[in-house]
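Hi support team,

I'm filing this because I wasn't sure whether my run with adenosine-5'-diphosphate finished correctly. The job status page said complete, but I'd like someone to confirm that the output block is well-formed before I use it downstream. Pasting the exact inputs I used:
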Amino acid sequence: MKKRNTVLILGVMSILILISVQAFIIIGIWQQKNEMFALRYNILSKDALSFISRRMATDGFDTVRFLLRQYSEQAVKELHEAKDEKELAAKKKDILDYVTTVVNKEQDLSEFLSDYFGRRGFEKNFNYSIVINDLEMISNDTIVVYRSQDFANRRLPDRSGKPSPPESYRSKILVNWFPWEDNNYRLVFDYFIDFSDKQQLILKETSASLGMSTLSILLVGIMFMITFRNLMEEKRLSNLKTDFINNMTHELKTPLSTITVAGKTLEMPQIRSNDAKILETAKLIGKQSVHLNQLINMILEISMWERTQFQLDKRTVEIDEIMNDVINSFKSGGGNGASINQKYNFSGAKVDLDIVYFTTMINNLLSNAVKYSDQDPVVIDIEGFTADNNLCIKVADNGIGINKTDQKHIFDKFYRATTGNIHKFKGLGLGLYYVKKIAEAHGGDVTVSSKPGKGSIFTVILPY
Ligand code: ADP
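And here is everything the job wrote out:
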């Protein structure tokens, strides 16, 4: 139990560690791909900008600049004419709105870039955004129309004098920083691009490593499950073997001690002078020796089966007859007292069977029906019929029944539902194993249906 728990905990822990390591690697790869993606489009757009300026002598904002030059002269005047602070603020707002609209609407850069990306086989559908950092109107003096918080204090220009992009734009790709100065205005703005399906594009790129790590986690999980199940199975078998040895010792000891006691009895002078007693004791010894022999033969036979193929000595027999014989001899033997209802009718079907094994199989089912019962009288119904070239025999009892978990194992070697050393019902856990082996050797099978407290039905199907 302790070992099993340790293995389970270690296994689960190593799988969790594996998952965390894989997750760590995947996150790393994802971040790297993300950065590479941004870098790729950053470089690409820089190339595009220099291509445009070389070939077309523009930065994509010619119209904007033209419009702003016209507008700024008038705007400066209007600012100076403002009567009070309120009017000044309203005017500043108008100017900022106008500039923002013009910069966004009248630029050709986005179209140029999209075209440039598309021609080179890259993603051409992107969203752009323009962030104005600083707008000042200049005549004799300078009037600040707008200055973003970042530009004003937080953002320290780097060595090139370029301010770092605002926090909310970090996930976007900065194409360029545009500082303009004209006769009547100074404008500084950033141009960003962003791909709405960026995550999908990166996912596509990482899908191979993602797939591999999922697969490796799955494989390790499956391997762990198999190993753990094997361990459990080994443990179960070893428990069964221990039980079997205990039960067998008990089974062998009973006839042996009877023989020992009988031997001692024979030594007594008063017994030796009594012929009837001698005969009775001799019979007892004989009976117990036969029982002992049967037990040993059974064990030997089972171990023989493990090594060699099951050999059947088949003969064609009328099944009704064989069934009658088996039941009659059972009744005259250990089955005394049980009320057996013979409800079978095989319509004179002739079947190829190994009579010895078939008899053993039915006998085992009958003696279990008697053994595992606390009813008086024990009632056993034996049904039988032929259907679709199959022979069906049902042995039903009104005994203690078998619970669902045990039903799965009762045909296993050495398995006993009353596990351990409980000798209320004696046995070695081999009877049903025998039944199953014999049914299978005849090309058939045996199944059970049972309810604890109600009884059990064993169904043997044999093809013929
Ligand atoms: P054994 O009788 O030697 O224990 P078997 O292989 O014949 O071994 O049976 C395996 C187990 O199946 C038994 O220990 C018993 O618990 C259960 N079993 C078998 N037949 C019956 C039955 N007719 N009714 C209830 N339990 C049964």
